[in-house]
Amino acid sequence: MNIRVPLATPARWIAPSLAVLALAGCGGDDDGATSAVPKLAAAQPASLSGTCEALAAKMAGLANTTVSATTTVAANTVVGGVAAPEHCRITGEMYRRTSAVDGKSYAIGFELRLPKNWNGRYFYQGNGGIDGSVVEAAGTFGGGPTTSALAQGFAVMSSDAGHNNATVGGSAFGIDPQARLDYGYQAEAKLLPTAKAMIRAAYGKEPDRSYYGGCSNGGRHTLVAAARYGDQYDGFLAGAPGYNLPKAAIASIYGGQRYLSISDDPTALTPANLATAWTPAERALVSAAVLAKCDALDGATDGLVQDTAACQAAFNLQTDVPTCSGARDGTCLSAAQKSVIADIFAGPKTSGGAAVYASFPFDSGHGAGGIPFWEFTAPVALDSGAVGQIFKVPPLSGASTGADLATFALTTSIDTMVQQVNATDATYTESAMSFMTPPNPTNLSTVKNRGGKILVYHGVSDPIFSVNDTQAWYDGLRSANGGDASNFARFYRVPGMGHCSGGPATDQFDLLTKLVAWVEQGQAPENVVASARSANTDLPSGWSATRSRPLCAYPKVARYKGTGDIESADSFTCQ
User: Fold this and answer.
1) Which of 31, 113, 493, 523 is the most exposed, having the fewest neighbouring CB atoms within 10 Å of its CB?
2) Which positions are annotated as active-site residues?
3) Global pTM?
């Protein structure tokens, strides 16, 4: 699972006039016209002042900050999978402390990469999982990135969100209440003023435009930042945003519990045993049944289900997948399997029938290679620790073993977990549903009224964070903006794509360039094209290596025009 953090307090933006603010409150046109909201000025480039190594002295006096190294990185060095220009890599940490609760040492580790030739923009990179390590600050997006923020000349920062998994023991950082808050949203707020000070020391000015982005937990970080720090950033790019992450983690565990009930050994609390509940052949069977019922709904029989909503109405797990009359052999599902799979896709519920998390749509990607990890390993190896030690109050002991966490996850009632992630006490004064989620996810007026923009994408076959949850968020955002939020926020469903990438999908696209053009040039992202990747092992053999499809801004759907190359985006239109 991917997870991230938010931002800072200093506001230096000039407020738009009251007349512009009044206009901004009116929603956008159906065609996404941006005339109702302000347009921000374009960033202006600058060059690194002096050598990279000399920057250490300039940054020696930064409050609560230790710079450990400044290193020149040569042009064409691959960073985050993309060749980067010559730049300065700065590493360090902030707010070193010893916890009064667990006695462990904590700090906010970071990496800042400053291009020699800077485009005047800053990008904060939200990272995934439970954070805990400083990954390369590149700012890459899409299944197989062809560009990155760093490659485009941004200054890019990455952090560990306030804890080091190697030293504090992974999810055991949740024993420390401040580490929870840093991970949830406070680390970014502490990092931003320092990042700007470092950029000012390097280039003689602060960023003209600032951007925030990430996928999975990084997408959560991004939507949290939009809600909490909308005055500090101009553009937000969120992939598969688990903005209800504690609930999504419970949904994952719920799935694990249900799979366990029909596994080969209901007493074996292991991923391998859970996987016996729904084998690769059986998952491929369901994907094929979905395609048989839904593929042609968009006018093209091409291995992609563009009309997700129509598919949910058309496909019926009970009648469209054969029911086994005897032993399971990969050509059918047992009645018990159908019951469990239907329950999981419907979303977890309390014993009283209340929905805990969103439902999941049936799509073409359930047989993809990345699905087993999220379906069978994550409940035992990831979400057990996330809920057990980071989200719940009180947390499980820091001495808990992997077996202890697995037992907690697969034997504790969903009702109890829901109560625990909403609980507080004298030590943990903020619940997980407070520190992990946007405080008001559909009130993004600060972003809108100052001319900021938001792009969100999500794979329809994502098995861990539901695209339906993101769609519900966007529907709420539309309602909060007179029925149309398209003049400052757009949402793209990616058919067949799994969690952030992969699946039988066109999962390679560049929304970062589109976001910058929208923020700084007023060019709304009307034509976004996604392409297939040859490195994606989930691609069906019959697809062209150059297949492309339009990414359509929800609620529009890509439909075949009736003529033209079935492998080309030009043969489809968003309707």
Assistant:
1) 31
2) 216, 462, 499
3) 0.93
